[in-house]
Specification:
By secondary structure, the protein is of the alpha/beta class. It folds into two domains: 2-14 and 194-313, no CATH class; 26-190, Rossmann fold (3-Layer(aba) Sandwich), CATH 3.40.50.300. It has helices at residues 2-6, 26-41, 56-68, 85-95, 105-121, 138-147, 167-173, 178-181, 196-209, 220-230, 234-250, 258-271, 293-322, and strands at residues 45-50, 73-78, 125-130, 151-152, 155-156, 158-164, 184-190, 217-218, 255-256. A hairpin with a 2-residue loop joins strand 4 (151-152) and strand 5 (155-156).
Amino acid sequence: MYESFYGLTARPFQLTPDPGFFFGSPGHSRALAYLHYGVQQGEGFVVVTGDVGTGKTTLARMLYEELERSREVVVAQLTMTQCTSEELMRMIAAGFGLAYEGRTLATLNAELEAFLRQQHAAGRTSLLLIDEAQNLPAEVLETLRMLTNIQVGRRSLLQTLLLGQIEFRQILLAPSAKQLRQRVVACYHLLPLATIEETRAYIEHRLGHVGWRGDPEIDAEAFERIEAFTHGVPRRINTFCDRLLLYGFLEELHVITAATVDAVGAEIAADLPLLPRPDDGPAASDTTADAAPESRVADLERRLRTLEEAVQGARDGLHRALSQGC
């Protein structure tokens, strides 16, 4: 809709993770370096955590696409993690292109081990990449740990990359996860963009990827207000800026100012009156318009977080539904 108005080749702020839009902030570049380091180690677990929307899935997909082109690494990627150990084994088998229908758990284990040994003999590393790892039950984490016991000499034949939300760090610190924790070879926590300058660079990077040539012009104060609304979380920036460009198109704007950003923030707040807010009572939404600007920003940030969590829950439910045949 707004793409043709601004001369863009595509939507720059789509929510679907796309490695082509990867922005190498210091934090994201460091996280990717940890993932590459882990792959080079060829064994154990590599863990990357981060809050909702910080870019973990984009990192995972970027690494997956890189490794898929390599003849030295064979990769299986899982994104549905609320499962039993047997379901996990079936998904791993499917991810590596092995038959899984009608197989018992014992058969799945034996055939996976044979596959891993075959890949090792051919000089290839077998890599399992798991997103949303915070949803893995304790029994499934133990199954993953046991898979690292498939070894040649002292070298494990399966390496696992675990990407999860911040609560996964607490799971790993639990006494029951001690043995798994001892096999983690690298761990990194991904933070939101740290400064207004990083937020601005992120926005301009995504716009530039779809042919932006300065239309719309975004002034410096507008970037400051976007950072205040989104707190530098990439997914929130995408959500907000997509709405911002739509607003600019509808109002036929070619300059985005702080006032424009505030107007969009107010629109989003008005669109979400029924979402529960963790710090306020049920009638608090009626007073939003009368609150101070700083309070409205904090209020909107909380409500956006609640919306993102609801979307995340819906996505997890869809993954479960799609995987019932496994």
